[in-house]
Amino acid sequence: MRKLIITYVLSLCMSLAWAADVRDLFVAMPDSVLPMLSSINRLDMLDFHDSGMKAVVRNRLDGDSELTYLSRQSIRIRYTGSSEVDIRLFHYRDSVPLICVVHTVESGGLRDSRIRFYDSGWNRLDGSRILQTPSFESFIRSDLSRDSVAYIRRMSDINSVRVRVPDDSDRVEFEFTGLLYSSEDSLKCVSCLRKEPLIYDWNGRRFTQRRK
């Protein structure tokens, strides 16, 4: 009998963990995660979206923020005119939710992202235990000579990286977007970089880099 009760309780906990979708977590999100959006802003976004309206609200800085995509696992928000936020829900192997938040800022054609992880109670997690973000060298082609690698390291100006979380996928993508010193050097250096983004797959415990 005791074993039956324990099994029932564990099954109930697992079902509740899976029941939480990104919409529920977005409503429960503390204002400190996205300070420009109040709880009322977030509820209004969802109400507008559910009504088939454009989900635009006036944020705390009196600017426009818009919910542009919503599914059970993903939310995308145009946070300001020059930034966007992706909120993506993953699950550990034991069904416990993991929240991934990617904040991307654009300036002068340059896009740079910050990625953070939270548990279902919106407590910040140690990202290094979940994903080892790539270094600048990771974006350099592996077939280059030592001199070419040294050259591109010298010419790199701003090491900005854009992070993508494809809708409802189990991966994270990193794309180097850093600016280089001059147009002539830029063409040479771009040819030294990988053309495809670096892909990290979620295995239910952490993200691991996909190997070709």
Euclidean distance between termini CA atoms: 51 Å
Rough shape? globular
**Major beta sheet, strand line-up:** 1-2-3-4-5-6
The amount of beta strand, in percent, is 25-35%
- What structural class do the secondary elements suggest? alpha+beta
Largest sheet: 6 strands, antiparallel
Bin the helical content.
25-40%
Mean pLDDT: 85
List low-pLDDT spans: 1-19
Q: How many individual β-strands?
A: 10
Radius of gyration: 20 Å
Task: Describe the protein.
The protein has helices at 2-19, 22-28, 39-50, 146-155, 183-190, and strands at residues 56-58, 64-70, 74-80, 83-91, 97-107, 110-118, 161-164, 171-176, 198-202, 207-209. With 212 residues, it is of the alpha+beta class. The strands form two sheets. A six-stranded antiparallel β-sheet has the order 1-2-3-4-5-6, covered by helices on one side. A hairpin with a 5-residue loop joins strand 4 (83-91) and strand 5 (97-107). Mean pLDDT is 85; it is low at 1-19.
Helix-strand layout with pairing:
Elements (H helix, E strand, L loop, with lengths): L1 H18 L2 H7 L10 H12 L5 E3 L5 E7 L3 E7 L2 E9 L5 E11 L2 E9 L27 H10 L5 E4 L6 E6 L6 H8 L7 E5 L4 E3 L3
Antiparallel strand pairs: 1-2, 2-3, 3-4, 4-5, 5-6, 7-8, 8-9, 9-10
Write a concise keyword list for the protein shown above.
single chain; about 210 residues; alpha+beta; 6-stranded antiparallel beta sheet; 4-stranded antiparallel beta sheet; 5 helices; 10 strands; disordered N terminus
Summed up, what is this model?
The chain is α+β, with helices and mostly antiparallel strands and 212 residues long. The chain has five helices and ten strands; from the N terminus they run αααββββββαββαββ.
